[in-house]
Amino acid sequence: MKILSPPDLHYPITVGELAKRRDDDVERSEQLFTYVYESTVEEGNKWGEKRDVIKKFVAPFTASVQGKIIKWFINQGSVIPRSG
To answer: Could you tell me which residues come within 8 angstroms of residue 72 by beta carbon, excluding any fewer than 6 positions away?
Structure first.
């Protein structure tokens, strides 16, 4: 099973916990690992003042196909700068 990261993620992403191990079978849409990304969001306070803040978000990365983990090319903490 070879899975590439899609172009529609908020890059760069940092790999969190791997949910699967080598030789594990994987079903389509099953979680492979979690990742963390940063995004700018607008926050407001009770006085109506708004400001842009950079926040971190955790998201699951799921398998796009069914298969078997043969080898990981990432580790926890790996930074993936772009799709591919």
So the answer is: 18, 22
